[in-house]
């Protein structure tokens, strides 16, 4: 039957998107699109219950617990999801059903934060474990170390009760999210799609320093279990938590009637644009805890609460202009400027058009009438163009062939959507170029963080790379202004800059930002050419003789050294005393040559980057996945599935101590 085919198709589609959302933190569709798919599936199951199978997304929570992220912990209280509703009638039906059983019932209406669920367990007032939802029923992931560096997580309760388990939502404020993405772009890394993805990925990753830097936040929305005291209502639990210094959901409302509940839902909807974090709905839950216990839960959702999902708000407006901005990586982004409209309580007048492919898909031009929407997200989006209203003479927008900042040619890399400025000396890329130059894999100037780079560029101390080596001339002024800190910090950084002049020339080569020339390629080039000058004077055929250098890389290197601006930079660096020649007397250590490593788990005394550098320093190579070509798997604590894969393939698994012994 037709409905059976559609049912099976929907199961497959939704399970795929569940994996993208819950397990990969990288959804491909909007919340609204997902909700509509799930609603269609539920409608088929309601009309044809005989088709329901155990693998239906309606029969289980969407996520899985990941062993690679950390140790798995068994849930003591299930972390279930909520049943979604999309209209006033469904809210009224829920309230009427509950009131029929409990006429004196009270409800609490509160915001539904768009983040990642986490439970916190306290014993005798001390935080002992933090767990993600995982599969929601059996296991979650232990994220205690990362949770403890979140400012909103209370480590010690004022009242030392025997046991307390609470559940909350880890999220990012809009400002924190913007800061992280700006930092990612500065480092040339992939930016996050939205705050929820970033929060989820940050909580699950293995380095608590990264978690702390990204400034996650937490709201608590439920007491899961308590021993040593008793609460009669949900709001009593909130009052106790607030006395402990724990941050609970803001501006919750206690309601008795359907009218009060709907007013609270509408109030949240009207004010969501003023919040400094994203929400994806409003939660309506029973306040009386005894009533909750009596109602119970299904295998997936509690019967005592629902989540109302707001419809995406969208409005028509006129596209006034398309402005091109050049990011610090050279990526050119088209931004739509349109007549201001109000969405989700805020005035918006601009939205990204992403790239030329997106523009082609919409067929959008200046003067068009466009539909802009916001679905509880931080950034407004353009949904479509109303071509019937297109003014005569309007044409689809096309990217220019020159950079809007420096006038250099632009290019689109094969297989990529982004168009970038080809001039690595473009002023828009200066900060990123300096950060790359001083980074660990390049000139490794310790203590020269991104914040210092930005300030020194903004204040005019650095206009190009060689200016780094003239900062010592402004030592007293730098101390006076406190850009780097007081005397001790300033002198420490200036000493690090001076010491970097002695680096082997492969570090300098890697730091220049030549396309496809990273740390390992630079090392091979210097092994062959022995000096930067020899490489400058080489032709393409000579460059291609170097191991792993193909036509594209050879052309990029050759063209870089034919550019007068680039040669001027290298000449200035040489005048500053930066080393350009390989040290022929340095003994080569190739103890690990021919060995391929995979690193997994948490090592006792070094991070993964440090371990990778150590292996490469001794001639070995490091990859991210285990295969038959892998020589060793270097494993620490909580190593995950890579060790299992190694054992299946007969690859030797070694410890950090064994690696260090090999290097003796």
Automatic annotation (TrEMBL):
Q: Which UniProt keywords apply?
A: DNA damage, DNA repair, DNA replication, Ligase, Magnesium, Manganese, Metal-binding, NAD, Zinc
Q: Can you state which reaction this protein catalyses?
A: NAD(+) + (deoxyribonucleotide)n-3'-hydroxyl + 5'-phospho-(deoxyribonucleotide)m = (deoxyribonucleotide)n+m + AMP + beta-nicotinamide D-nucleotide
What terms describe the molecular function in GO for this protein?
A: DNA ligase (NAD+) activity; metal ion binding
Needs which cofactor?
Answer: Mg(2+); Mn(2+)
Could you tell me the EC number(s) of this protein?
A: 6.5.1.2
Q: Does the keyword Ligase apply?
A: yes
Show where the BRCT domain sits: 587-664
Name the Gene Ontology biological process terms.
DNA repair; DNA replication
The entry marks the following residues as binding NAD(+), namely 31-35, 81-82, 110, 133, 169, 285, 309
Q: Which domain of life is it from?
A: Bacteria
Catalytic site positions: 112 (n6-amp-lysine intermediate)
Q: Identify the residues that bind Zn(2+).
A: 403, 406, 421, 426
List cellular component terms (GO).
cytosol
| HAMAP family (alphabetical) | DNA_ligase_A (MF_01588)
Q: What function does this protein fulfil?
A: DNA ligase that catalyzes the formation of phosphodiester linkages between 5'-phosphoryl and 3'-hydroxyl groups in double-stranded DNA using NAD as a coenzyme and as the energy source for the reaction. It is essential for DNA replication and repair of damaged DNA.
Query: What PANTHER family does UniProt report for this protein, alphabetically?
Result: CHROMOSOME TRANSMISSION FIDELITY FACTOR 18, DNA LIGASE
Q: Which family does it belong to?
A: Belongs to the NAD-dependent DNA ligase family. LigA subfamily.
Query: Under which name does UniProt file this protein?
Result: DNA ligase
Q: Which organism is it from?
A: Clostridium coskatii
């Amino acid at each position: 039957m037709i409905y059976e085919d559609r049912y099976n198709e929907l199961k497959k589609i939704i399970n795929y998107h569940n994996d993208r959302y819950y397990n990969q933190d990288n959804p491909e569709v909007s919340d609204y699109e997902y909700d509509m798919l799930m609603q269609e599936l539920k409608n088929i199951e309601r009309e044809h219950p005989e088709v329901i199978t155990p693998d239906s997304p309606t029969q289980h929570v969407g996520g899985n617990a990941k062993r690679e992220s950390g140790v798995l912990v068994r849930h003591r209280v299930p972390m279930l999801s909520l049943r979604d509703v999309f209209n006033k009638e469904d809210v009224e039906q829920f309230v009427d059903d509950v009131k029929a059983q409990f006429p004196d019932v009270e409800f609490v209406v509160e915001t539904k934060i768009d983040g990642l669920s986490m439970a916190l367990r306290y014993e005798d007032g001390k935080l002992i474990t933090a767990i993600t939802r995982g599969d929601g029923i059996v296991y979650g992931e232990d994220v205690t170390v990362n949770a403890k560096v979140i400012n909103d997580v209370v480590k010690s309760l004022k009242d030392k009760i025997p046991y307390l388990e609470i559940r909350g939502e880890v999220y990012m404020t809009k400002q924190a999210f913007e800061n992280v993405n700006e930092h990612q772009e500065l480092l040339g890394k992939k930016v996050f799609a939205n705050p929820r993805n970033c929060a989820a990925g940050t909580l699950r990753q293995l380095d608590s320093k990264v978690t702390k830097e990204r400034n996650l936040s937490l709201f608590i929305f439920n007491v899961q279990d308590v021993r040593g005291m008793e609460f009669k209502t949900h709001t009593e639990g909130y009052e106790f938590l607030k006395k402990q210094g724990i941050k609970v959901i803001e501006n919750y409302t206690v309601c008795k009637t359907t009218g009060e509940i709907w007013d609270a839902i509408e109030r949240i909807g009207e004010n969501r644009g003023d919040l400094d974090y994203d929400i994806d709905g409003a939660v309506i839950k029973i306040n009386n805890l005894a009533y909750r216990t009596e109602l119970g839960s299904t295998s997936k959702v509690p019967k005592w609460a629902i989540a109302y999902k707001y419809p995406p708000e969208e409005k028509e407006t006129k596209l006034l202009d398309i402005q091109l901005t050049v990011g610090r990586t050279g990526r050119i982004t088209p931004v739509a400027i349109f007549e201001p409209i109000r969405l989700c309580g805020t005035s918006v007048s601009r939205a990204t058009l992403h790239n030329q492919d997106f523009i082609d898909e919409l067929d959008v031009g200046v003067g068009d009438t466009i539909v802009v929407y916001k679905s509880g997200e931080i950034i407004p989006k353009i949904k479509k163009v109303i071509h019937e209203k297109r003014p005569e003479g309007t044409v689809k927008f096309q990217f220019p062939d020159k950079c809007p900042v420096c006038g250099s040619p632009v290019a689109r890399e094969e297989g990529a959507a982004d168009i970038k400025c080809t001039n690595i000396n473009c002023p828009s890329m200066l900060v990123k170029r300096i950060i790359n130059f001083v980074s660990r894999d390049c000139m490794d100037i310790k203590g020269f963080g991104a914040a210092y780079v930005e300030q020194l560029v903004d204040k005019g101390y650095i206009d190009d790379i060689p200016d780094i080596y003239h900062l010592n001339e402004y030592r007293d002024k730098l101390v006076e202004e406190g850009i780097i800190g007081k005397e001790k910090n300033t002198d420490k950084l200036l000493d690090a800059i001076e010491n970097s002049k002695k680096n082997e020339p492969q570090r300098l080569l890697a730091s220049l930002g030549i396309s496809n020339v990273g740390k390992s390629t630079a090392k091979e080039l210097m092994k062959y050419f022995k000096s930067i000058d020899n490489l400058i004077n080489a032709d393409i055929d000579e460059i291609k003789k170097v191991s792993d250098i193909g036509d594209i890389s050879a052309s990029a290197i050759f063209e870089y050294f034919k550019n007068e601006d680039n040669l001027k930079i290298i000449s200035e660096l040489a005048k500053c005393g930066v080393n350009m020649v390989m040290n022929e007397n340095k003994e080569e250590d190739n103890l690990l040559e021919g060995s391929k490593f995979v690193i997994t788990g948490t090592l006792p005394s070094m991070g993964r980057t440090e371990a990778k550098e150590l292996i490469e320093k001794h001639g070995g190579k490091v990859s991210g996945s285990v295969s038959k070509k892998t020589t060793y798997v270097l494993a620490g604590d909580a190593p995950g599935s890579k060790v299992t894969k190694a054992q299946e393939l007969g690859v030797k698994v070694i410890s950090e101590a064994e690696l260090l012994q090999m290097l003796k």
